[in-house]
């Protein structure tokens, strides 16, 4: 398990550095700092400690986006398509690793990065096309896994109930606690009904290791 954490940490750190330094042309010292903050944050570490390894695949986002942006900067079509294939494999790895819960977050974060990139360089269309191609390719590669997943859901339906916050103040407290706090949702009674959640389900902690 430690090897897995080290592996994803290296990819996350390297991908973030390349994205910041090469794609966004940020100075090396700031790129290193950004890589450190991304790699060693509570979101990854807490879920690793409880064994939710599927969440570690989110560390591949910076490398994924670096390759998407890089694919539009190359001249030769074969190299462009090679990077799109690699991005498709990265997205497929999320599905095969059981990271279904973070795929929407992964896509929204990728889209946010492209919007920020557009704001800086006014270059969006080709990047967006390659992003969509990579995701479609990843879905096609993972089609067997997806079909099995849908079949399991059809045979074993789940009863999911909605959770409502007590009031707006509870919602604000929940967000602040998720980012900077250390207690559980259940202990703080944020919801209208008693909802038992473990510490890792709340923590999106931002800070140093």
Task: Please give the radius of gyration in angstroms.
Answer: 19 Å
Mean pLDDT: 81
Number of distinct helices: 11
Approximate helicity band:
55-70%
Strand content: under 5%
Listing every helix as H and every strand as E from the N terminus to the C terminus, the arrangement reads HHHHHHHHHHH
What does this entry look like structurally?
The two termini are 18 Å apart. The mean pLDDT is 81. The chain is globular, with a radius of gyration of 19 Å. Helix 4 packs across helix 7 and helix 5 crosses helix 7. It is built from 11 helices and no strands. It is an all-alpha fold and 209 residues long.
Short description:
With about 210 residues, this protein is mainly α. It is built from eleven helices and no strands.
List the helices and strands and how they pair.
Layout: H1 2-23, H2 28-39, H3 42-49, H4 61-71, H5 77-96, H6 103-121, H7 125-141, H8 143-155, H9 168-180, H10 185-188, H11 199-202
Helix pairs in contact: 1-2, 1-4, 4-5, 4-6, 4-7, 5-7
Keywords:
single chain; 209 residues; mainly alpha; 11 helices; globular
